[in-house]
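Task card 7
Instruction: Convert sequence to structure tokens.
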Amino acid sequence: MKLARRNAILDSARELLATSGFDQFSMETLARETDLARASLYRYFSSREEVLLALYQRLREEWKSMLIKALKPGMTDEEIVKAYFKASSKDPIQVLLRSRLESTIKHNVSDAVLAEELDLSQSVLSAVIGQLEACTNLPEAQCHDLVISYGALLVGASQLDATPSRERGLLSPAARRTGKALSYQRLFLKNGLRILAGLKSESSRGSS
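Output:
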């Protein structure tokens, strides 16, 4: 019963994030969304960041399962990068939470919760790295660098879609065309290929 209630809270948290955004998300608004008293909500999560971290962990597991299923030995570099982007960008809420993970969320949870997150993160990282090793023929260290680089690239590229509509309306036609050419997906795929090629070149030089 407690697990079902916890999952229902996380479902509501995801919906609330999608409608109100990160900065407006609070325990008070979440309590209203779930029809729970704030005191009852705090029995499951001690802070808004703990809610957000738990939601991110759940979405990260879904991302891991989708990515591992999509990555197969024998894929071309382009296919690998496209599969990585598709899995990573499927849920914008996961990308949003990932962008705030290090700067905000982790800094506002207890040591016990943070320690659990570090263990979970390592488990996910190891699983993804293992699948990337089989697909890219890169050693573990380079696959680790690939995951870290792609995470940073994903968050950075996603900001291209975050320009407020008012600002977009003030851009000149030429500037709008430039922004379209540098779209989120295009930027990730182009630079993702460069990163992968660079790591393969580095690995080749190291083994020669």
